[in-house]
Amino acid sequence: MTRLFNDPARFTDDMITGFAAAHPEHVRAVPGGVVRARPTRTGKVAVLTGGGSGHYPAFCGVVGPGFADGSVIGDVFTSPSAARARSVAEAAEAGGGVLFLFGNYAGDVMNFGLAARQLADDGTPARCFAVTDDIASAPADQRARRRGIAGGFVVFKTASAAAEEGAPLDEVVRVAEHTNARTRTLGVAFDGCTLPGSDAPLFTVPEGRLGLGLGIHGEPGVSEDTLGTAEDLARALVTGLLADRPADTDGEGRVAVVLNGLGATKYEELYVLWGAVARLLDEAGLTPVRPEVGELVTSLDMAGCSLTLSWLDDELERLWRAPADTPAFRRGTPREPLVDAAAERPAAAPRRTERSAATASGAAVEVAELAVDALRAARDVLHRDAEALGRLDAVAGDGDHGRGMCKGVDAALAAAEKAHADRLAPAAVLAAAGDAWAAEAGGTSGALWGVALRAIGAALPADRAPGREELASAATAALTAVTSLGGAEVGDKTLVDALAPFATAFATRLRTEDPVAEAYASAVAEARAAAEDTAGLRPRLGRARPLADRSVGTPDPGATSLATVLTAVATLHTTTGSDPV
Known about the structure:
Elements: H1 11-22, E1 27-30, E2 33-36, E3 46-53, E4 70-76, H2 82-92, E5 98-103, H3 106-121, E6 126-131, H4 152-164, H5 169-181, E7 183-191, E8 209-212, E9 223-226, H6 230-242, E10 254-261, H7 267-283, E11 287-294, E12 303-311, H8 314-321, E13 324-325, E14 330-331, H9 363-384, H10 386-394, H11 401-421, H12 426-441, H13 443-458, H14 468-486, H15 496-511, H16 516-533, H17 548-551, H18 557-576
Parallel strand pairs: 3-4, 3-5, 5-6, 10-11
Antiparallel strand pairs: 1-2, 2-4, 7-8, 7-12, 8-9, 10-12, 13-14
Helix pairs in contact: 2-3, 3-13, 4-5, 6-7, 9-11, 9-12, 9-18, 10-11, 11-12, 12-13, 13-14, 14-15, 15-16, 15-18, 16-18
């Protein structure tokens, strides 16, 4: 159980504050995460690792010379928002461009991708790379769909070392790709982890059993097996990894090895296991190079471990062996940066600004007020259902959906209220709400709700109430924005399964001259039915995909929360007699 916290909602912020205070020689806190305490040389590629918190030493613990230039830190098990990623990038960038490195999770892909595009629009070259080392999460012929777990440590290390040597951005990306192609990980869990403020783990494993193929965000294993001896486990891990050996490594026997503890498995146990692993690798003709045994990519207090093998060539061995000096990982003595320690970092490029927000007039003021009322209704029902949404999410995910939705809607409502008080047009009110939702919630849902609210606002006029065609266009625009960013389709078991029928039904009914309130109520009924029907689907995207069998029989939390919000807005307009916008 996670016992030491103040306010669970501020767990990550409090952790960052304490971490930076404990390691001032290595890091300094910036909005969104941490960067190196000392400036790097001009022209160096800034390598930024990131993801949700709860994985220490990943990701902030490996910031320093020879390793990462900064770390973007989200809430526990929640992808950081694009705003946080951009903030850290602007603080770390030294003129050589930015490379975001992260595990292959939908929220990370979306949010880091958005940040990279924003940086590029402002003239800073930026790239993203997602690690895909988890062999249990997808078959060998679908490697691009695999999750990123502890093998990311090896990818982060070699790419960072290449950047430290002065390699340009494209070359650092190539090193990351090359390392990832040769890296495989398999993990097991003996028991689940507990989120701060919760009194029960996200999952449990029966006594004498283990979960094979765990996720590092509190996801249970993809299957269960009998927990035998350390020798038995070592053989299962090594055999599984060798069966997935990269095709182009048959003549190579050098491997970087990471035996990783997940948070509650003691070092003594790991060393017992390592003794058996080392012998089995030797029998397989493999030579470990600078093996690492310990906690490197954890999952709060999860009991379990993972084994990573990364097949090395001469280039990768040099980069793996290269010195590094970070709070949680030290190897050799890195060369000090060739800059004055007192030098200031380059000024960050100015942030893009919205075009001047138009003030609302006439009926548009009332439309903006209705948008605020809708967000207020959404806040009330999401807080009411937060625990239930979390339980739905915990079936095949990390259990944070309800908490994330509450953070997002709270921020969105506050931003919308301020924009409305300034008498801004509906588009500006909803843009402010969308940006705030995405920034505070993070994760997949934060990014999707952010672009949806922005798209709805962009379809509304600034100086009058919207007409029927504009309302239809707003619903369609929200669907287009969500599918364009997330790539989901109907049937993938995501919020799109509820949003698509809602948008289609609303637009169709409006264009057949039904009263707006009736058209909306009918569309909401379609969304609710579709959300319930997701219980019969197998997830094809997101963190739930590797646990598809567990998910069958449970509705998708994203579709459920969307239907809940749409229903609340319908109820609001039934009681007030106003038309939804």
